[in-house]
Amino acid sequence: xxxxxxxxxxQNLLYEKKGAIAHVTLNRPKVxxxxxxxxxxxxxxxxxxxxDDAAVRGVILTGSGDKAFAAxxxxxxxxxxxxxxxxxxxRHAQSVTELIENLGKPVIAAVNGFALGGGCELAMACTIxxxxxxxxxxxxxxxxxxxxxxxxxxxxPRLIGKGRALQLILSGEIISAQEAYRxxxxxxVVPNANLISRSEAILNQINSNGPLGVKYSIDAVNKGLDxxxxxxxxxxxxxxxxxxGSEDKKEGTLAFLAKRAPNFQGR
Length: 267
Ligand code: CAA
Description:
This protein is 48% helix and 17% strand. The chain is α/β, with parallel strands linked by helices. A hairpin with a 2-residue loop joins strand 3 (13-18) and strand 4 (21-26). Helix 4 (118-125) packs across helix 5 and helix 9 runs antiparallel to helix 10. The protein is globular.
């Protein structure tokens, strides 16, 4: 029996809310948390629940066991799918990555081991990536005769630049957490034992800030990276205007001037 949300029972995830932080854990450790269609369906339900729960301000996504965050798409499932089925399932997986990327709340990928193929792509859809020292990253799809299908060809070059992204995607090379840090794929590398506590500390710091400012900053960065700089600046100005008309802005500026801590309401 798995954990449940809104009437659905999770067989492949652990899902738990601790105060303002939701913890989503990929839970197929026997196959290194490989991502099959059931996992993506459950991720969709969990992240929609987070999105709709005002009490939740951020998410930590990790993998169960000490070996893997996720070792990619489920190769057994993939081996029997037709091209048409694969196109449909990859579109669904992509929609889940878009839900996570545009959740309006920060999502930290706490990468506890292998993040390969779809696992690396899932981590890249998150707002921030924190890696355990033993984590490993890569896009080894070409070794299976395929290519990245859950956003890797788009998000990897945006994160680390075109040349490095193409080298990783074309070689299928698996890199260490330190190398991932050096090229900007992860934000921090921490000792394995500190992975969750450091992720919680980052979310707590973000959560002390105005929720609207956080939400619209994520929006402005994501939407801006989709288009030209001038389109991005227009989006930034519009969202800035919404923030600047909010109660939170009034409270934040008054609190600063009164030398007291702000009490943000997300309005
Ligand atoms: N799908 C299904 N099963 C997987 C899996 C995957 N992606 N990765 C690992 N497993 C299974 C193994 O088959 C094995 O099962 P059995 O115990 O039943 O044999 C179990 O998990 C443990 O794995 P290994 O014995 O292989 O563990 P290892 O420590 O020797 O190697 C590894 C670890 C290097 C990560 C290796 O498992 C591996 O190369 N896995 C595949 C990685 C990969 O190619 N990922 C990309 C998938 S394609 C993709 O993701 C497409 C996309 O863009 C959406």
